[in-house]
Amino acid sequence: MEKSLNTRKLPQTDSIQELAQFWDTHDLTDFEDELVEVSEPVFERETVVEIRLPSEEAEAVKAMAESIGVGYADLIREWVLDRIHAS
After folding, report:
1. Would you give the DSSP letter of residue 69?
2. Model-level pTM?
C-alpha cells in the first residue's frame, strides 16, 4: 500500500505551545478542505461593569479579599453570582 503524500493533519490539542509550533511551520491554506464554517460565536465576550465605592468601602473589600486569598474583583463577582442564584 502506498503512503499518502499529504500526511499533514491538523493537531488535536489544546496546548498553546504545540499549536504555535505547528502553525509556525504550516499554512492555513493547506488545510482548506478540513475547515468548517462556524455560524455561532466561538468566544463569548464578558461585559465589564464599573462600580463606584467610597475609598473606605473599597479598601474594606480589598482587605476581605486578601484575607481569603482572592482578588477583590473575584470576590465582588462571587457576591453578585451568589445574589443572582439566590433569587
Report:
1. T
2. 0.51
The end-to-end CA distance of the chain, in Å, is: 65
Q: Please report whether residue 82 resides in a domain.
A: yes
CA distance 76 to 87: 17
The 10s digit of each residue's pLDDT in 23-74 is: 898 888 888 888 888 888 888 888 999 999 999 999 999 999 999 999 999 9
80 in a domain, yes or no? yes
Domain extent for 72: 55-86
- Whether 29 maps to a domain, the answer reads no
Please choose, from the candidates 4, 10, 7, 5, the residue with its C-alpha nearest in 3D space to the C-alpha of residue 36: 10
